[in-house]
Design brief:
Elements: E1 2-7, E2 10-13, E3 18-26, E4 33-39, E5 46-52, E6 58-60, E7 68-73, E8 78-83, E9 92-99, E10 110-111, E11 115-120
Parallel strand pairs: 2-11
Antiparallel strand pairs: 1-3, 3-8, 4-5, 4-9, 5-6, 7-8, 9-10, 9-11
C-alpha cells in the first residue's frame, strides 16, 4: 500500500506560479513512477506530468508548453510540480498518482485526494 497526499493548490491570478507537492508514504520502495493528473469540471481526467523514479526521466503533456516542471526529493519521498505562467485553462483539481509497474496512467493503483488549483483572469 502507498499513500499519497497533495498540497500547494490555491487561488491565483493568471501569470502567477504555484508549487504542488505530493508526499508518499507506506510501501514506497518499489514505486516505478509518480505523476500528476488534472480534472476540470465537466472534463475527463488528463495526464499532466510524470517522473520515472530510477533515473528522474520526466514526461509532460504537450499543452503545458514548458511551463510545468516535475521534480523529486528522495529524502522526503516527495514529488513536486512547479507551475509557472498559469492560465485560466489550468484550473482543475490536480491529483498525484503512483505506479509500481509503468509510467502513471488513469488506471494506476495509487492516488491522492487532489488539490484545487484555480486561476483567475
Amino acid at each position: 500500500q502507498v499513500q499519497l497526499v497533495e498540497s500547494g493548490g490555491g487561488l491565483v491570478q493568471a501569470g502567477d506560479s504555484l508549487r504542488l507537492s505530493c508526499a508518499a508514504s507506506g510501501r514506497t520502495f518499489s514505486v516505478y513512477a509518480v505523476g500528476w493528473f488534472r480534472q476540470a469540471p465537466g472534463k475527463d481526467r488528463e495526464f499532466v506530468a510524470a517522473i520515472r523514479w530510477r533515473d528522474s526521466s520526466t514526461y509532460y503533456k504537450d499543452s503545458v508548453g514548458g511551463r510545468y516542471t516535475i521534480s523529486r526529493d528522495n529524502a522526503k519521498n516527495t514529488v513536486y510540480l512547479q507551475m509557472n505562467s498559469l492560465k485560466p485553462e489550468d484550473t482543475a483539481v490536480y491529483y498525484c498518482a503512483a505506479d509500481k509497474r509503468v509510467l502513471v496512467n488513469k488506471r494506476s493503483e495509487y492516488w491522492g485526494q487532489g488539490t484545487q488549483v484555480t486561476v483567475s483572469s
